[in-house]
Amino acid sequence: xxxxxxxxxxxxxxxxxxxxxxxxxxxxxxxxxxxxxxxxxxxxxxxxxxxxxxxxxxxxxxxxxxxxxxxxxxxxxxxxxxxxxxxxxxxxxxxxxxxxxxxxxxxxxxxxxxxxxxxxxxxxx
Length: 125
What we know:
This protein is an alpha+beta fold.
């Protein structure tokens, strides 16, 4: 049975026009001071703000889906077959790595990811 090995990230929608420079500065100053959050500059887009939270991240997006994302310790095929509903099809690379999103009984979608490197790190503890 596939096991969740960790929380990768959480993405939440914000209204279009929210992610102004002033808003970003205020958010990062407050949460940086309170919790040590910092922006992940490599993921910065005009409509997305991503902050590092330990080994995970939180994104505020004006255009992306609202979801929380888990990494799993096995391939996606068996999980994908058990989905009750999905907002997107399973997509994988030639190693069977990839992700899919689904929603069932929770107010946010769940994104499931499998990447061999992440799985190896999780299993080595």
